[in-house]
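Hi, can you check this record?
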Amino acid sequence: MPATLRCGDRTYALGARTLVMGIVNVTPDSFSDGGRFLAGDAAVAHALRLLGDGADVLDLGGESTRPGALEVAPAEELARVLPVVERLVARGVRRLSIDTRRASVAEACLAAGASWVNDVSALHDDPEMARVASRADAVVLMHRREMQAGEPGDDVRYRDVLGEVHGFLAERVAAAVAAGIAKERILVDPGLGFGKSVEDNLRLLNNAARLRGIAPVLLGPSRKRFLGALTGVEQADERDAATHAAVALAAQAGADVVRVHDVKGAVAVLKVLEAARRVGS
C-alpha cells in the first residue's frame, strides 16, 4: 500500500483521512445531472464550486456510464472534456481526473494538464489505455459486471460478490503493473451500482477494507439507484441524504476516496467522523 497519492500539485497522505472526489459530468445524459454542465462555462463554474466546497480531486467525464446510455464517439467525448480541462488548468487547477475508457481522450487530457485516469473498464476496452495511463499520477480500475441478455441489473447473481470482485480487481492490477503502470499509482473501485443487487452493493460498501490489500480503494455510492431502492427516493438528485450515510459507511469501512456529486455534504460528514475518531471512546 503506497503511503501517498499525488494529484497534480497536491500530495495526499493515505490513511490520514478519506479524500473526496467531486463529479463533473460534461454530458447530456448522465443519470443524475445530465445536461446541467454540458456547456463549458457551466462545467468550469461547477468544478470551481466543488473545489470551494472542499473537493480534493475533480473527476471530469464526457460519456455517461448509466445503464442504457448511448456510446459516444471518442471525438465527441474529447470535444466535451478537453476545453474544460484546458480552462481549469489555465486557472491553476491541476487536481483533475479524467473519467474515460478511451486512450485518445485520456492522452489529450493528460497532455493538457489532467493528472488521473479513471477507467470504468479497468483498462479492458482500449488496448492503448495502459500505455497512456502509465503517465498519470494515479489510475482507477473499476469492476463492472456485464449483464447478460434479459438479465435485469437488480437480478444479477454472484456466488460470492466479495470474492469475485476481489479476484477481478487483483487480476486487473496485476495486468496494469505488467503493462508498465507503477503499483503505487493504482486505486481500485468495486463499482457500486454496476451490475450489482442492493445487497451486493451494501456488502461491498461494508467491506472496503478487504480490497485495500490490493490497492487503495475508491467508492462511488453517490445518488445510485440502490440508495433509491432503500429509501424510496426515485429522483436521483434527491438522494444526497442517503449518499451521506453511504459516505459515512465507506469511510468507516476504510475507503481512501469517495466519489460524490454533493461535495459540501460529504466533506461535512467526514469532518464529523474524523473529529469523533480523534476524541476516541
Q: What stands out?
A: Residues 161-178 form the longest helix (18 residues). The first strand starts at residue 4 and ends at 7. Residues 4-279 form a domain with the TIM Barrel fold (CATH 3.20.20.20). The two ends are 28 Å apart (CA to CA).
